[in-house]
Amino acid sequence: MRPLPSLYVQTAIARGEPSKAPRRSRTVARLEHDERIALRVTQRQREAWTLAAQREGYLSLSDWIRDRLDGAARSRAMHSSDHQAFNTPAAVLEAIAPMGRIALDPCSNAGSIVGARVAWTVEHDGLACAWAPQVLRGELCFVNPPFDEIARWVARCIEEAAAGCEIVLLSPARVDVGWWDRMLDAGAVAALWRGRMRFLGMGSAPFPAALTYFGPRRALWRRTMTPHVTGFTRHARRELVEEAARRELVEEAAE
User: Fold this and answer.
1) Distance between CA atoms of residues 63 and 5, nearest Å
2) In sequence order, what are the residues at sequence separation of 6 or more whose Cβ sits closer than 8 angstroms to the Cβ of residue 237?
3) Does the structure show a pLDDT above 60 at 84?
4) DSSP 3-state assignment of 34?
5) pLDDT tens digits, residue range 11-64?
6) Nearest to 144 by CA among 48, 78, 195
7) Predicted local distance difference test score (pLDDT) of residue 249
8) How far is it, in rounded angstroms, from Cα 169 to Cα 88?
9) What is the rounded CA–CA span in Å between residue 169 and residue 142?
10) CA 144 to centroid of chain Cα atoms
11) Do 15 and 37 touch, CB atoms closer than 8 A?
12) Where do the CATH 3.40.50.150 domains begin and end in the chain?
């Protein structure tokens, strides 16, 4: 993947226009190798873009425009098997740090900054190896899989969690697909990342992201992630089952 282009934005009043014509701004994007893309928009359009950039958490209008211009290519990369196209950002690793050390990264690559005690690359085939023996109590397995194979990795997360492995999975927040339903039905808790995640070297992702926890320390997970997410989601059926079990315990204790 080539790095994203660097841009700057200039504003000027176009010459030779009638005095009653709306003011127009000239937005100039400087790409690599001194290439340029010039966009002519009205001042009102520019102001609307600026507000949109602020709402989405951008610090500059040029970054917002760059992500719009490069969005199609980046979207293809995000959904491809080019795993280095969406390496985990430091903000995610800092957010989950209170949960414990990352013992295993079964989806690692040369560009990863996860820093797991054990890191498996594609040559190791993390889907073919057992995870639980590598993770001690209070440690994590962190999974940021190739998104075009995510259903297989979710199935493996469910299997390893059943074997006692605590796992954090980074994925798109795809509430409309089967693998999302299956992992929540298995007892996982998904934390919906605030804003668009900015993968290493990729800028903002073209989709909302989630960090999903498989394990028994769900209360700690909620406390840890609350400053970084907009909310949490669990499977409604799982919550009903657990609520029924709690009521049964209360009734037995009262007898």
Assistant:
1) 10
2) 185
3) no
4) helix
5) 433 334 444 444 444 444 444 444 455 667 788 878 888 887 776 656 677 777
6) 78
7) 73
8) 11
9) 6
10) 9
11) no
12) 82-243
Residue 3 has a pLDDT of 37
Structure tokens at 177: 């697909």
Largest CA distance in the chain: 89
- For residue 177, the tally of other CB atoms under 10 A from its CB is 12
DSSP for 67-127 reads HHHTHHHHHHHHTSS-GGGGPPPHHHHHHHGGG--EEEETT--TT-----SEE--TTT-TT
- Residue 236's contacts (CB-CB under 8 Å, 6 or more residues apart) are none
Q: Which CATH number is 82-243 given?
A: 3.40.50.150
Could you read off the pLDDT of 178-214 as tens digits, one per residue?
A: 999 999 999 999 999 999 999 886 777 888 999 999 9
Total length of the chain:
255
The percent of residues in the chain predicted with pLDDT above 70, rounded, is: 69
Q: Can you say how many angstroms the Cα of residue 137 is from the centroid of all Cα atoms in its chain?
A: 26
CB 211 within 8 A of CB 169: yes
Q: Which two tokens stand for residue 144?
A: 């940021």
Sign of the Cα pseudo-torsion (222, 89, 162, 148, in order): positive
Tokens 């999302």 appear where? Answer: 180
Cα separation, 65 vs 74, in Å, equals 14
Distances in Å between the Cα of 61 and the Cα atoms of 10, 56, 79, 208 are 11, 11, 26, 21
